[in-house]
Amino acid sequence: MNPRVADFELPALFHYTATFALALTGAMAGRRRNYDIVGVFVMAFVAGLGGALLRDGIFLDAGPPLSMRDGAYLPVVLAASVIGSLLFEHLDRFGLVFNLLDAAGLAIYAIVGTQMALAASLPIPAAIFIGTVNAVGGSLLRDVLVREEPLLFKPSHYYALAAALGSAAFVMLRMSAAMPGTLAGSLSALLIFLVRVLAIRYDWKTSPLRL
Fold it and tell me: How many whole angstroms separate alpha carbon 93 and alpha carbon 108?
């Protein structure tokens, strides 16, 4: 593997932003279900950190999960819970807000997971897969807990595919273009975000599998 791919660590702000965006979607889902404060916090925690816990606990297995070793994550989730609870009535009027938050979290976590897998010296295909799991894991657990059919499993507006595309783009920019890590990560996350938002805007969807 090209050492330039693995010798870079994305700034912590990438992690915290993704956690906050997805945790806010979880808090909104909890409020929509009329959960109490404990339920809202659990939904925010699962949505915000579920993908990261899957990444660290199953695929990277590098000791305690990063979200438990870094004391900033739980306050970020708590802040998302409070903001989601207080502003729910305003935010939920616009379905676009939920979709934008979800797209932002999806985009950033895909790049975070890919980079962490590369830093662990995993092969590129595995890194792209782990980046995708990191991106979609929280929303998968969120949907399961509120008893909705997971978005990941049904024809959708380029959800997991957008994450995988951006993860692959990040690797290519680092390897082939030797682009600085922060710039490569930002551009790749923007690609995922735009693909996801444009797919929702113009109703671009994957199709059911029929053989």
Answer: 25
pTM of the model: 0.86
Q: Which residues contact 118 (CB under 8 A, 6 or more apart)?
A: 1, 5, 6, 124, 127, 171, 174
**pLDDT tens for each residue of 85-144:** 888 887 766 667 778 888 998 999 999 999 999 988 899 999 999 999 999 998 888 888
Q: What percent of the chain has pLDDT over 70?
A: 94
Q: Residue 178, Cβ neighbours under 10 Å: how many?
A: 11
Distance CA 96, CA 9 (A): 31
Distance CA 116, CA 87 (A): 33
At position 40, the amino acid (one-letter code) is V
Residues 6 or more apart in contact with residue 148 via CB below 8 angstroms: none
Q: Which amino acid belongs to residue 104? A: A
Q: Angle at Cα 35 formed by Cα 76 and Cα 18, nearest 5°?
A: 25
Torsion, Cα of 78, 79, 81, 85 (10° steps): 140
Each residue's pLDDT tens digit, 20-43: 989 998 998 899 899 999 999 999
Pair 139, 102: CB distance under 8 Å: yes
